Records
---
Amino acid sequence: MILSGWESVFFWIFSIAAIFAGLLTVMARNTIHSALFLISSLVSVAALFILLQAEFIAGVQILVYVGGVMVLFLFVIMLVNVGSEERGNEEIFNRPRQVTASVIFCGLLAAVLIGALNTGYAGLERRDEMKIRESAEGRRTRDQELATSATGASRLTNDTSRIGNSLYRFAALPFEIASVLLLVAIIGSVMLARTLKQEASVDDVDPEVLRTEAAHDPALAEVQTGPLA
Amino acid sequence: MHRYIWLVPLLPLAGAAINGLLGRKFRFSEKLIGGIAAGSIALSFLITVAAVYSYTFGSQAMWPQTYVTSQDGNSFTWIPGGAVRLTQGSEQRTSIKLQEEAEKKRASLPPEQRNEPILVGGVSDSSQGSVLNVEWSYQLDALSSIFMLIVTGVGLCIFVFATGYMHGDPGFYRFFAYMGLFMFSMLVLVMGSNFLMMFVGWEGVGLCSYLLIGYYFDRQEAANASRKAFITNRIGDFGFALAIFAVIATFGTSQYTGVFAQARNYPLEPLGHWGLLSWIALGLFIGACGKSAQLPLHVWLPDAMAGPTPVSALIHAATMVTAGLYMVTRTNVIFQHSQTMMMVVALVGAATALFAATIGITQNDIKKVLAYSTVSQLGFMFMACGVGAFAIGIFHVMTHAFFKALMFLGAGSVIHGMHHEQDMRRMGGLKKYMPITYLTFMAGWLAICGIPPFSGFWSKDEILWNAASTRHIPVGWIVWIVGVIAATCTAFYMTRLMAMTFWGKEKFLDPPAGGEADEAHASAFDKGLTMHDAKLKSAGDRPRHEPGEHVGHVDHHVHIPHESPRSMWVPLAVLAVLATIGGFVGISTAFTGGKHIGGRMNIVTFLDPIIWNPATSYFGSHEIVDSYGKPLEGTVEMHAVLGTAELQVPEVPPPYGTEGFNLAGAIESKVHNETGTEWVFMAISVLVAGLGIGLGFLFYVKDTSLPEIWATRLRPLYQASYNKYWVDEFYGWAVTRRVMDAARGVFAFDSKVVDGAVNGSAWLTRFSSRVTGITDQYFVDGVVNAVAAFVMRLMSPLFRAAQTGFTQNYAFVMVLGLVAALGMIFGADILGWFKR
Amino acid sequence: MFKVFIPTLALLFQEANTGRWAVIWQKAQHPDLSKFLIFGALLFIIGVAGVLTRRNIIVIFMSIELILNAANLNFIAMSRYLQDTGNVNAVAGQIFTVFVIVVAAAEAAIGLGIVIALYRNKETILIDEIDILKW
C-alpha cells in the first residue's frame, strides 16, 4: 500500500494538518475555536480516508461526523458556554500537577505506541513482502478495469459497492443492533435533557420533589400536570 | 338357539344395572323395579329353557358334546396371553397329532435349531411352552344346563316372591340390583368355560352374598354376619386360587375342555399316594368348603340368616352354596384321580351332615333351623360326590333347590304373616290362618324327609345307596351309617318345625312377654324391646339388643296372622309342584329294572358325559361315547324327544380295587340279587325317615312335655347342640383374638421400634444441627468478622482516597492501565527498538 | 565565506543523497502503512492529553472524538493493507469504522444531554467543580 507521487505529498499535508488541528483543539482557549479546529481535523482525516481509497467512509465521516455530531457540539457549546468570553481569564487547563502527570504519561504512551508500531510493522513487512509487491501490479490492472466517470477524467471506484455487499450481508445483525442503539440514544438524550418544568407537565416528577422545587421556583407551581394527577 | 346363551347372564346384569343406577335417581316405582328384575330373570329363564331344549332335543342337538360359545365366535379374549409363557402342558388347540408331527420335525433339524418354536399345521408348537390365552366364553353342556335351569328357574320364583316380601322397604331398588348382580355372577360361574371365569363368578357371588346379607346395613348383627360370610368364603377362596394356579401351571390352559382332555390321561393316585392331582383336588375342595359351608367353614351360613328371607332362599339354599358342588362335579376327573381326596370329601360331607343335623334339633328360630338343614343337606351332596356318584350329587342339588327354596320362602311367608315374628315358640297352629303356605310347606317337608314319591326321597336314597355300594373309597359303609343317622335327625327336626309352626296351639295368642325384635325389617324397630324376655343366656337365635336401642312400650296388641299375597304364594305353589314331581327325572334303577330309562330326560344319563370313567379313562360310562363328546358310530341310535334309547350299564371294574368293606356287597351276598339289595337299602331309608317323623310327632304333637324332659336328661348334649358346639366361640378365641393379638404386637413393634428409630434419628439430626449451628455462629463467623474488620481498617482509607469524584482522575487511571498493559506486552520489543 | 559556506553546502548535498537523512527522505516519499498507524497513534495521544488536561467538559468530549477518529484511521489503514496483501474484498475495517461512527454519534448525543442536564443543575461546565461522587 505504498503511496507514491502526489499521493504521498497529500498524505503528508493532510496528516500534518490533522495533527496540528488536533493539537489546537486541545489547546484553544475559546470552545468554539476548539470545535472548529476539531472539524478541520476531522476533514483532514476524511482526506486521509480518501487516500486510503475508502471513499465511502470519507463521505460518511464528513456527513455524519462533521455534519451531525460536530453541529450538535456547536449547539451544546452555545447552550452552555455563554458567558465564557466574560470569564476570559479562566484557566483552561487543570492544575499544574495534573497537567504534568498527564503529559509525562502521554509521552510514555507515545513512546510505547510508536515503538510497538514500528516493531510490529517490521515483522508484518517481513511476512507480507511478496504479497505487497505482487499486489501493486494487480492493483494497477484493477484500477484500469474500473469504470470511467461521465467526464472521463477519473474512474469510479467500487468501494461503496463492496462495503454495501459486506455490510448488508455479513454485518446485517450488527447493523440492526446499531440502529437500535441509535434509537436508544435518541430517546435517552431527549429524556436526559428535559427540564423540571417539562417533566412536571407530563407528570414525570414525584409530587414531593415537585413541591420542594416549587418552593424554590414559583414558575413551577403554575405547571398544569397531566390527566393522571 | 343355544348360540344365544350369552344373553342369559347379560339380562340379569342389565336389569341390575338399570335398577341400581337409575332406580333411585329416577324414583322407579316398586312395580317397575320388580318388573325389570323379575322380567330379566324370566327372559333369561326362557332363553335357558329354549337353549337347553335345543341343545338336548333340538334338531341340531349337541348333547353329549359340549357347546362352547367360542365355537360360534361369541366370545372374546379376556386375558390375552403373551406375558405368560407356560412351561408345561400344551395350548389347547394343539392336538396330540400335531404334537407328534412337531416332534418329528424337530428331530429332523440340526441340533442348534432344535429349541426354536416349530410351526406345525399353522399352530406354533414350542417346546418352550405355550401362551396362556384366557377367553370369555360360555359353555353349555349337561352340567351347566342343569345349573342354569335351577338358577334361573328357582331364581325366578324367588324374585317374584321377593317383590311381595320386600314391599315397603326403602331400599327396594338396591335389593333387586344386588339380586340381579348375584344372578349374573352365579350364571357366569356355572356357564363359564374356564376356571378363571368360574373364579370370577365365585368371587362375584361371594360379594353379592356380602351385600345381600348385610342388606340391613344399619343393624350390627347383619353387618357382622355379612363380614363373617365374606371372610370365611375368602379363606376357602385361597385354597381355590392355589388350585387354579396349579391347574394352569400343570395343564397350560384354563379352559375346561383343554384341562380335562389332558387330565384324564394322568395316572390314578390311590390311597396313600399323594400326587399332583391330589393337591389340586385339595385346593378345590377347600374352596368348596368355604363356599358350600362344610366343616369347618360352615360358621357363616347360620349367621347369614340375618339377611332378608328371599336372600336366604336364593343364595343359601338353592344357588350359591351349590357352587361348590358344581365345581367339584365339573372337576370330577381330578377328584376321581385321587382316592384320598374322594375319601376326604365323603367324610367331611358326612361329618357336616351329622353335625349340622344335630344342631338343628334344638334351634328355635325358624330360619336357623332351615339354615342348619341346608348345611346338613350340603353335606349329603358332598357325600354323594365323595363316593363317586357325582350325578346323584347334582340330582340332590336340584331337588334340594326345589324343596329348600320352597321351605325358605314358606318361612318367609310365615314371618311375613306373623308380622316379623321368627321364634317358633311363639308360633303354632298356623295351618288355619295360612293354608296355602301350610300345604306347600308340607310338600317341602315330605320331600326333605325322604318320603316317596317326593323328590327328596329319590335323591337321598340314591345317595345312601351309592354310599353303601361305592367302590371308589373303602369306607363307604361309615358314610352310609352317618348318612342314615343324619337323615333321621333331618326328619326329626323338620317334623318339629312343622309341629311348632303349623300344628298345635296358637301360642301367638298368649300375651307377649315382650315383643321380639324384627329380624327381617329394620324399620319395624319401633315395636320396642324389653330385656326381660331373654330367658336363655346363650347367643343363639335370639335377636341381639343393641346397646342404646330404645326400649319402647310393650305392645299388647296381638297380631292375627294372615295369608300372604298372591305374589308370594304363587311361587310357593310352583316350587311345591316341583318338589313333588321333580324327583322322577332321577328315578332309581331299582324301579326300572336296572336300566336308566327316559333317555336324556333321565338326569343320570343326561349328566353322564360329564363324569369321567376311570376304567376307560374317557368321559361317560356308556358305550355311546368313545372320547369326550364324540359318539361312536354304529352304536345305539338316539331319538329326539324323550329319547327311547335304553342304555346298558356295563360292569365297570373298580378303579381302586376292592379293599375295604363294601356294605352293599355284603348284603348282596346274602340276598343274591342286586336289585334286591337296592330295595333293602331303600326300605332302610324310608324306615329311618318314618322313624324321624314318628319321633317328631311324639315329641311335639302327642306329648309336648317330652322335649323338656329329654333336654334336661341329656343336658350336656342339649347344651352342646343349642350352643352350636361352641364353634363360633372357639374360632373367636383361636383365630380372631390371636390375629388381633398379632396385630397389636406388630403395631407395638412399629410404633416403638420403627417409629422410635425414626424419631431417634430426627432427634439426632436436630442435635447435630444445633451443634454445628453454634460452631458456625461463634467460631466461623467470629473469624470472618475479625478478618473483615481488620481488612476494613487497613484498606478503607486507601480506597476512600481513590474516590475523588474527579472524572479526569478516573480517565487518568485508565490511561495508566493502558500504558502498563502495552508496556508489559511490548516492553521487550520497545526497548530493543530504542536501543536499535 | 567561501571556505565555509560552499563546502558546507557540498557536504549537505552529499549527506542529502547518501546519508542517513537520505534514507529517511526516501522513506518519507513513499509512506506506507506504518506511517498511517503512527499518525493515528499521535492523534490518539493528543486526544488522551486533551481528556486529561482540559477543564471544560465540551472540550473533553471533543478530545474523545479525536480518539475515536484515530481508531477509525487505524481501521481504514488496516483494511487497505489487507486489500493489498490478500483478499481484494476485505472491507471489514471500513465496516467497523461505520459502526464506530454510529457509536460515537450516539455517545456524543447522550453525553451532551448529560452535560446539559448537569449544567442546569450545577451551572458550571468545568469538570473539577463537579465532584459530587467523592467520599
---
Amino acid sequence: MLKQQKITLMEILEGSPKQALSRYAEWLISSVVLVNCTAVILDSVPEIHAVHKDFFHELEFWSVMFFTAEYLLRVWSLGAKHADNAWKGRREYIFSGFGLIDFIATMPYYLHVFFPLLDLRILRVLRLLRILKLSKYNSALQDLFSAVSSQRRAFGAAAFLLTIAIIVSASLMHIAEGHVQPAHFGTIPHSIYWAIVTITSGDGHVNAVTKGGEVVALFTGFLGVCMAAILTGIVASAFANQMSRKKSSYKAQLRQVLADGVVTQAEKDALKRLQQQFRLSDKEVQTMMEQAQAGKTP
Amino acid sequence: MNHLLEVSTYRRVKQRTFAILEGDVAEPASRFCEIFIASLVILNVLSIILESVPEIHDVAGTYFHIFDLFSVGVFSLEYILRIWSYSEKYTEAGDSPWRGRKEYIFSFYGLVDFLSTVPFYLQLLMPGTDLRVLRMFRLLRIFKLSRYNSALDDMFEAIKAEKDSFSSAMFLLFISCLLFSSLIYIIEGHAQPEIFPSIPAAMHWFILTIVSGWGNVDPVTFPGVVLVVITQILAIALSAVLTGVVSTAYTTQLARREALYEMEIREVLADGVVSEKEEITLKNMQAKYGMSDEQVESIAAQVRAEKNLSE
C-alpha cells in the first residue's frame, strides 16, 4: 500500500510522463525558486530591506519549510528506485549533483539558526544557489554541456593558446613599460591582470606611454579578437556536430522503419520519442521522411 | 453574356493585382512594383531621419510635408489594393473571399502596413497628438522592406528551430548573472560599498561585463581581481555559445531548404518533362528561399546525374 504511494510520488517528483501531476510539481517548485531568488536580490537593497524586512523573513521561513519537505519526500520516495535495496536509490540521489544542490539550497537557514553569528552575505549567496535547482528541469542545458564537452580537446588547446598569449603579452608589456609605469606594470602578475583584461575586452584601461608599449597594447588587443574567433568556431562546430549526429541516428532509425514498407503504431511511437529526445522540429522530420522515401522509390 | 464577361474582366484584374503585389515571378510588373515601394520606403525613412534635425526641418519643412502626403497616399492605395486583391489567395469553391483578406490583415505585414499608414489619418482627426509618437509609427515603414527580403523571416525561423539551445544559453546567462553578481557583492561590497551597495547594482556590473567585455569597475581586493578575470573570460565563452547556436541554426536552415528544393526538382524531373507551370513553381521557390542560380544549377545537375545513373 505504502509502497505504491512511494512509487507514485517518485514518478511525480522525477518528472515521469506517466504522471500528469509531475508537470504541476515542476511548475510549483520552479516558481517557488524564482520568487525566492527575486526576494534575495531585492532584500539586498538597503532601502527595500528597511521597509519589507519582516515580509522577507516570513517568506524565507515558509520557503525553507517547502524545500525541506521536498528534500525529505525525495529522499524517502527514491527508496523505490531499486526494488532490492531502498538505500541504494537514496544514496544515489543524495550524492548526485542535484541532490547536493537541493541540500545546499535548504541548509543556510538551519545554519543561521545554529550559528547566528555567520556573515549574512554568505548566507544570502548560499540561498541564491537555489536557482541551480531549475537546471534539473532544463534538459537542453545538459545537451549544451555535452556538445561543449565533446570538444574538450579543442577547448584545452584554446586554453593553452590563451595562457601563452597572456604570458607573452604580459611579459612584453612589463619589459616595455615596467620602469615607466611601475604602478601598473611593475611586476609580471600586475601585467598579467592587464593582459587578461585587454585580451577579453579589447582595452586594458591603462594608456601606454612609450611607443613599444603602444605596439604591445595593440598586439594584445588583436590577440583578443583572434581568441574570441577561435572559441566561437569551436563552439559552433560542436553544435553542428551534435546536430548532425542526432540527425544521422534519426535517419538510420527512419530507414529501418521504412525498410519493410509498413509503419506500425509501435514504430511510430518510437520515432516520435526519438524526435522529442533529439528535439528535432516537425519540419526537419518531414524533410528527412521525404528524403528517405524519395531515396527508396527508384 | 455581357455581364458574365464583365465579371471575368474584373476577376482577371484582381488576379493580376494579386500576382503583382505578391511578387509572382511570372508577372514582370511585380518587379517594378517591388522596386517602387522599396525605394519609397527608403526615401521615407531618410526623410524622417533628416526631418528630426531642427536646422533641416526649418528650411525644408514644407517639402517633407508634401512628400509625406504623397507617401501616405501611395501606401493607403497599396493597403486597400492588397485587401481587395487578397481574396484571390484561396479560390477553391467553398472559400469565402474574406479568408485571404483576414489572413493578410492580421499577418505581421498586414499590421505593419496598417500601423505605418493610419496614424497620419489619426493626426487629422485628433490634431493634438504628440508628433514624436507619430514619427515613431512612421518609422515602422522600414519593416515593409522585410517583405521583399527574407532575412527577418529567416532569422525568426532559425531561432524557432533552435529555440531549445537558445533558451538554455539564456538560462546559463541568467544563472551566471545571479551567481557572479552575488559573489562580487560579497567580495567587493565591503570594500566598495558605493559601487556594489546591493545585488541589483552588482547585476548592472555583470551585464556590462558580458555585453561590452569590461564592467567599468577596478576590483580592489585580491579575490575581487580573480572574480573579475573569471567573469571576463566567461563573457567571451557565453558570447561564443550564443554565436555558435546562431550559426548552427542558420546552417541547418540552409541545409533544410536545399533538401526541400531538391525534393521539388526530383518531383518535377520524375516524369521527364518540365512544364511551364512546374518551372514557375521552381522559380518561385528559388526566389522565396533566396537561393543563387549556381546553387540551383548544381542541385539540378546532381539530381539529373542521379537519374541518368539509375536509368
